[in-house]
Amino acid sequence: MENRQMQKNIIVAENIVRSFPVPGSAPGSREEFMALKGISLAVPARSLTILRGRSGSGKTTLLNILSALDQPTQGRVWLQEQDITAMTGGARDQLRRRRFGFIFQSVSLIPLMSAYENVEFVLRMAGMKQGRQERAEECLKLVGLGNRMHHMPQEMSGGEQQRVAIARAVAHRPDMIFADEPTGELDSATALSVVNLFKELVKKEGVTILMTTHDVGLMGAGDKVFALEDGKLIGEAEESHGISL
């Protein structure tokens, strides 16, 4: 992989194929379901990049491979100069813990911890020895929850809980955040505010965010948008400016 390309792009994937055995197939059968069918793409550094597609298009499967949660059946993924598909399982675990952040449709906050405690706990898990309080408070203020940091999850709206999840994901200063349908359970106005927050984080924290969505109303927010259908890449657009958030 050329250094110039890797400096521009934080992740490059080549010919990604992912297949799964078909449930209920006859014993000894080699019948497989092809979830991804030879996808190649590059994610620009310090961008908000969107993978769009309907349910079953393969976008979550691709996100899991790019984030080292799953391995492709075929193909390679580079994180800058590192071939993450060639790493050991332990090395991939360390990569996810140190350099990646994750946000999911279900926010999965720890219900017995306040917003602040949820974020501070992640910093402890990441091995941060000093400055945890300051960083946790900084991140909660960054997502607009400076006056809500000591509230419990059940005392917060769905949008506020997702903002806590975003603060938690960015707290340990990852290179990349992977967000799988982060606005899927939010109303349109709250979804736009979350995506607007992502754009601010790209500018202020220098992080790269890769998110999946089926919501066509969010397409104009992405610096780059990849469209998936039936496990194939069917199109992309760069620097979309059609929506003002």
Could you give a quick summary of the protein structure above?
This protein is α/β, with parallel strands linked by helices. The chain has 7 helices and 10 strands.
Give the topology, please.
Layout: H1 3-8, E1 9-21, E2 32-44, E3 48-52, H2 59-66, E4 74-79, E5 82-83, H3 89-99, E6 100-104, H4 115-125, H5 132-142, H6 158-170, E7 176-180, H7 188-205, E8 208-213, E9 224-229, E10 232-238
Parallel strand pairs: 3-8, 3-9, 6-7, 7-8
Antiparallel strand pairs: 1-2, 1-4, 4-5, 9-10
Helix pairs in contact: 4-5, 4-6, 5-6, 6-7
Structure explained in plain terms:
There is one protein chain. The chain has 245 residues and is α/β, with parallel strands linked by helices. It has one domain (3-238): Rossmann fold, CATH 3.40.50. The protein has helices at 3-8, 59-66, 89-99, 115-125, 132-142, 158-170, 188-205, and strands spanning 9-21, 32-44, 48-52, 74-79, 82-83, 100-104, 176-180, 208-213, 224-229, 232-238. A 6-stranded mixed sheet has the order 6-7-8-3-9-10, sandwiched between helices. Strands 2-1-4-5 form a 4-stranded antiparallel sheet. A hairpin with a 2-residue loop joins strand 4 (74-79) and strand 5 (82-83). Helix 4 (115-125) crosses helix 5 (132-142), helix 4 (115-125) packs parallel to helix 6 (158-170) and helix 5 (132-142) crosses helix 6 (158-170). The longest helix is centred in the C-terminal third of the chain and has 18 residues, at 188-205. It is globular and about 55 Å long.
